[in-house]
Amino acid sequence: MLLNCVAYENGVKLADLAVEDISDYLERPDCFVWVALRDTTDTELDKMQEEFGLHDLAVEDARHGHQRPKIEEYGDTLFVAMHLVEVGHPDLEVGEVNIFAGRNFILSVRNRSSRSLLGVRARCEREPDLLRLGSGFVLYALMDAVVDLYFPVIDDLESQLESIEEHLFDKGAALTNIAQLYELKRKSVVLKHAVMPLMEATGKLHGGRVPMVCVTTQDYFRDVYDHLTRINAAIDAMRDTITTAILVSQSTVSIEQNVINKRLAAWAAIFAIATVFTGIWGMNFRLMPELQWDYGYPVALMIIIAVCGYLYLHFKRSDWL
Amino acid sequence: MLLNCVAYENGVKLADLAVEDISDYLERPDCFVWVALRDTTDTELDKMQEEFGLHDLAVEDARHGHQRPKIEEYGDTLFVAMHLVEVGHPDLEVGEVNIFAGRNFILSVRNRSSRSLLGVRARCEREPDLLRLGSGFVLYALMDAVVDLYFPVIDDLESQLESIEEHLFDKGAALTNIAQLYELKRKSVVLKHAVMPLMEATGKLHGGRVPMVCVTTQDYFRDVYDHLTRINAAIDAMRDTITTAILVSQSTVSIEQNVINKRLAAWAAIFAIATVFTGIWGMNFRLMPELQWDYGYPVALMIIIAVCGYLYLHFKRSDWL
Amino acid sequence: MLLNCVAYENGVKLADLAVEDISDYLERPDCFVWVALRDTTDTELDKMQEEFGLHDLAVEDARHGHQRPKIEEYGDTLFVAMHLVEVGHPDLEVGEVNIFAGRNFILSVRNRSSRSLLGVRARCEREPDLLRLGSGFVLYALMDAVVDLYFPVIDDLESQLESIEEHLFDKGAALTNIAQLYELKRKSVVLKHAVMPLMEATGKLHGGRVPMVCVTTQDYFRDVYDHLTRINAAIDAMRDTITTAILVSQSTVSIEQNVINKRLAAWAAIFAIATVFTGIWGMNFRLMPELQWDYGYPVALMIIIAVCGYLYLHFKRSDWL
Amino acid sequence: MLLNCVAYENGVKLADLAVEDISDYLERPDCFVWVALRDTTDTELDKMQEEFGLHDLAVEDARHGHQRPKIEEYGDTLFVAMHLVEVGHPDLEVGEVNIFAGRNFILSVRNRSSRSLLGVRARCEREPDLLRLGSGFVLYALMDAVVDLYFPVIDDLESQLESIEEHLFDKGAALTNIAQLYELKRKSVVLKHAVMPLMEATGKLHGGRVPMVCVTTQDYFRDVYDHLTRINAAIDAMRDTITTAILVSQSTVSIEQNVINKRLAAWAAIFAIATVFTGIWGMNFRLMPELQWDYGYPVALMIIIAVCGYLYLHFKRSDWL
Amino acid sequence: MLLNCVAYENGVKLADLAVEDISDYLERPDCFVWVALRDTTDTELDKMQEEFGLHDLAVEDARHGHQRPKIEEYGDTLFVAMHLVEVGHPDLEVGEVNIFAGRNFILSVRNRSSRSLLGVRARCEREPDLLRLGSGFVLYALMDAVVDLYFPVIDDLESQLESIEEHLFDKGAALTNIAQLYELKRKSVVLKHAVMPLMEATGKLHGGRVPMVCVTTQDYFRDVYDHLTRINAAIDAMRDTITTAILVSQSTVSIEQNVINKRLAAWAAIFAIATVFTGIWGMNFRLMPELQWDYGYPVALMIIIAVCGYLYLHFKRSDWL
Lengths: 321, 321, 321, 321, 321
What we know:
alpha+beta; homopentamer; about 15% strand; 7 strands; rod-shaped
């Protein structure tokens, strides 16, 4: 579905274009065309390929989707594939943004995501000084917008982790904790797969040899790279913490088991001693003088209670009960 | 076994050749020969070595098979060894495809696999524009076909993993889960060994210094490389998840044990208290007034039942039963 | 909040400046300006950007804070972001120092930290020979001061680790140990995130191509790099040890459980045998001669005590009790 | 002990030499000398050093043995240290082969291994075309022979691993499995230490700058490198699998424990309920009507058996017994 | 404390110098000065800095000590910091050797270690041919001496590990083993920190661009590097083995627990069945014919003994007892 198709000159909007007119405008110097598509059909993409002269393989990638984030050069044209990641329930929602960036055009294709990037165009049009930098700046603005969406996701994951950590040593919470940590780890994998390959690819857009489109806006791409590095480091730290937290949860289970076993042992001992006493006085020997005493029974009860009570206190003191 | 032996000129099929005529055609400019073998005998390979002038070491590798995936240059000729991996039961089935690619010839040898690559030739012949690019494009088409076969394998492994994950926290499922996870990890190792070395080798077919055969088709090899990177990342993520899942399974075992131990302890306590009571009233003291009461027995039973019932509820409430 | 704004010439203080006069002094050769801010407002930063001609993106970073430590070149100007880490209770306290270093100026901005860096200025002014080296030396002095603050932090963490290690094999201490180790690991992550990115960035300030500001003071930056390397290695060692210590703690839990289970088993056996004996002599067979003996009862008691005593000694000897 | 000392010209054996004549032959162009020693004495080595003009440090290394595998250049001479690894019982047997390779000589020294490398000389003499390539080819042939010996070792370790895997989930096999896995891991370390450093060193004998001795035989050394890479990857995979297998073995222990605990709990419950019943009817209340019934006793027994039987079936059904 | 201060010319000792004369001798061509200090005071170091013209930062490092091993160039002068590690009880003893190496001087400072390096000077003076190579060779000789001291340390750690391994599967040895393994791991960290940074730094003293001092003695420094690589690999292998051994120890604990639990269960069953039998015959039913039989009692005892004996044998056979 076509969202916009606009020509710009000197950082100022020139005209909304029909798709057929694109190639005309591309021939005008100092003019560049910015087209935004969404959930494209094959015919739309074919049309765009024809107008902009895009490479088969890049169009193929945009068509199939499910690409790993990457930045590829086809002659003068850059093909950028990015993941749009958003907090969803229960899983993260992952869409895609594919961008073709040539000397005098930008074609962005958004797939399987409801998150609009319209704000980027509005922001660019408000800053003609920067928009004058051409397609390189628009590419930056789009990438920056996509990357900025990763921050709330990592924040969400981190706050989930923190809320698990608060209950990490709670009694009986191990199973829930471990299940949640496992879920969190899976989400972090999804985010990691959006961030790390993009980070590596973006690292090649500043310093050293840089694709022509990005030459004048290197500092901006370094900024994007820097953001991605930050997010990537946060993910790594989180994953490390999750692993440790699972390990710690396992430990709490074992420790809890020790506590249970101790209590089991203590109560078993108390009841067993009482059973032995009643057993003794239940024996049928002819001559058991205490059985004949008037106060034999209450004394026996008191002895049993005293011994059990002593044991109880003993275990209490040594923290087995 | 010889499958095909065809000469092409300008992207169009020229003739089916006899093996003896190959060297003649190799001398014609603008002409290239594409030979496909399967489960070769030594004599076939010797013949081919003679016709194409292949290097001893490369032929040796093709003969012995069981190579690590690799791409080696012998002068102008490339030797490519790849694994053909397919979903099998119970294990993955691994065959081999060895390709010799020279300036004007392609010799592919498929071993120990029933998966035909005939479709590649058909597809190439339908696109004379691309086939005109020569042996470099055919090499790409063959590699692409082999790599495309990895996708269903990783998909299969991933869906197996997902089905295990659904039962990850099921009671008593730990042993089955762990056995399946172990099996899955082994399969991922097999796939990893097919993918990673090939990925590393393919990385050298685009950018920087590139073997002559591949110069005009660099973008295509980058595409193959990109696919391999994607599969490799998916394998790594899966392996990481498997390890975590085994860890988590271990935890569920310990947690289940806690549950069992608690129930054991609770029932032991209930029975033990009942035993103590019956023991007391089974003692043989002369003077135990309650024994003489008319309602002594039913009252005693009710006391026992009451105490046990209270304990039962108590344990129920504290989730030990 | 403006802390200082001073112009220096030939390593000697020239004058305290008003913010408006900065640009005048920047035009004088051999003169450089050193401004220190703290918890800046937006207007202050805007003013500074104007006076020093700073890059939008760098100012943006300084404004938002929460940067990953980094060193970025914007033309001739370096932007350095560092974390100020201090021992706090219960968590580490993390502030930020951002420095803009140009050919003839230094602008430092300290945020969210009460730790003053005034001492750096005093020290520099006491050593005119070094201060004469210009903004490169001041940058070094500031970085050195920030890095020196990491040493007490790592020392504190290490001594905490040592005190945990002393109790590592204490009975019943596992839960406390593990909780403390987990806390320690989290702190080490915070410190690691301050140190490692800064180390990597500082590594580019000596040897090879070096930013102009740092050329004459390379040896000094190598010294800072060396300190960071040392701290980083210490953190890595500590993290490794923590992981092992958690593993070891888990083991102590299991071992303790074995001890408990053995005692449980031993006592259960002793009481059970006594119960069996009393059960036997409590049976109601008509003809049980020992029941009629005069000394039957005391002999029976002695037998029971003897058997239990023997078992007790047996278990004691085999270390089950 | 001197094994052989032969001069070759144009790939053909010229003469068996006395040690004293070596230096004479070294002066003849197109001629090269191949000396093989075994478990050398100091005087032999000194003599060789004199004849071939070897570097002190290299001779020192050959004398002391226990070197890490490595390839070092001393001027025009290469010094190659390799481990000879063979399957032994119970441990792997590790010997050493040190080779000095100059422009026109090869000196090989085998220490602490009974495995003869004579076959290499025979094979080389059968192929004068290749032997004509000179000392570089002989060096390759020797390295190839040593590396080929690693394959049966890794095969042996892998088949041991497989036989352990077959019993991985056997009941009660955990201790044996873990002990064997531990042993296997130790052996893999020994093999790894033979293979990895050699692989890294061999990687420098082809492509890029190559020692003069190896220039004409680069393709052959790449072949050796390729073999080493394959073995190295196999070792890494095995080590990874071993670690997972130990983890899995640990899990089986815990799971088995759950099974035992369940059975313990089930039987305890059955006996405990029987004990309670007998305890009740063993009480001494004056008025317990069922005790007076004619069929009281058999009915009581039947009740006890019925209840225990019900419990037994119940536990059987829920898989606790 | 000054240990020696000697001038050499052409590899031969010229004279013992007073500290004040050093600078005079430094001006003579072909002459070099070798000074050895121990546990220096500040004034000594200041004096040396003056005589040799050392860099502030290097002197600062030597003064403060506790450096990470490193090699730094200050102009023509190298500053080398190394750790002297020796086997101690219970911990490793770590001292420091700092060396300043200039074109025509060597200044070595040993701190916090009683291990004398005098032997190095003696050995050098015995080999004037090598000593003629100048300060580069002396630097090598000192580094070699320090590195040679690491071998007995790693040997000691390895033999400790082996002695633990012998008891790895001993019953009840887990706690001791784990405590010792933990201790061993800590020591390996100390050694690692001495070896790895030094190895990395030494790797830059041969091949590629090499500091002027070391140019003529590159082969020697490669030898030192080689030793360090060997030690480093041994440490890594040991650490890996330690981790596995801890894991294995944990497993033995769990397995032992299974054994204990089985015995507990078996004995509990035997006693419980006996208790049930005595309970039955202790019931007070009026009509229990067997109670009236003459041989009722001995038959009952025999039944109990028979049943318990059968169970005992049963458990014995199935290895529970």
